[in-house]
Amino acid sequence: MRSQLPLRVRPRHVAAGALAVGTTLSATALAVAAGGAPAPVAHAPAAAAAPAAAPTARLKDRRLRYGQDVVVHGRIAAGAHDGSVALQYAPAGRRWRAIETARVRPDGRYRLAAELRATGKVRVVAASASAAAEAAQSASRASRVAVAGQLVVKRRSHDTRTGGAVRVRGVLLPRTRGHQVTVEGNVGGRWRAVGRAVTRADGHFSARVVAQRLGTTKLRVRSAGTKANAGTVAHAGSVRGYRASLASWYGIYGGPLACGGTLGYSQMGVAHKSLPCGTKVTIRYGGRQVTVPVIDRGPYVGAREWDLTGATARALGFDGVGTVWTTV
């Protein structure tokens, strides 16, 4: 007769634990078999760092003179900055660089101003005050600013005979070599080129201008735009063309004038055979110059064109008969 061995029974808590493990492993195996990934241990989701708010930026003027300040106003949200903003500038073909900083007021507003000497773009940036985004920067929309060059030209009246030449001199800023400038004259209400020059290394130029007509021609200098600077214009005075003519003087005081009135001792004026009464004539003689109206007719002797009143002759230091220079 076979002896019976006693049955060994596992404790319930062990069986229950094994069942739980098996159930968990089975569920994991089923999830993997179904193509899924094991469920990770649940954790609280990490807060994503919010980007810093971009400041607003409004330019006072987008077209500036050489050396003029660009002025930018704007506002930035509270908590999106560390108390200050910076104005960045990028000339054509170059990288951004900070050129000015300003503190932000309690209401979030700011004002920035900095001198510009070349055309480029500007924007405003602010470092975030948030620890999670302390390395991030927010920037306003970039705005293009055109900066004109500067022509420094002395305004003066150039006097010469017709066909004679005068020099118009000046400096173009920024100082560069080989930049062409054009001298223009106003003829019949329209500007046209009357001379040209090329700048030296120090920006100086000297243009030759020929007086092509009698009378006064207004002058200006024009510089075309470049990659670095916009074009600019500066007034340069005038050129006055004269011609030689024969004149005399008369002093029949108290006598009638063809244009009305009577001739007085201090009467400034000139007599001419055909010019309309009141026509202004500039007369030069011996380094002196006067501008007087036509007030009478004459002279009718020889080749003389002008008869100067006694007062006009005294103002010029003119005596007798001689050659004077006139603009008509």
From TrEMBL:
Residues 246-324 form the RlpA-like protein double-psi beta-barrel domain. It comes from the Bacteria. Gene3D superfamilies: RlpA-like domain. Residues 1-33 form the signal peptide. Keywords: Lipoprotein, Signal. InterPro entries: RlpA-like_DPBB (IPR009009), RlpA-like_sf (IPR036908). PANTHER family: ENDOLYTIC PEPTIDOGLYCAN TRANSGLYCOSYLASE RLPA (PTHR34183), ENDOLYTIC PEPTIDOGLYCAN TRANSGLYCOSYLASE RLPA-RELATED (PTHR34183:SF8). This is Rare lipoprotein A. It comes from Conexibacter woesei (strain DSM 14684 / CCUG 47730 / CIP 108061 / JCM 11494 / NBRC 100937 / ID131577).
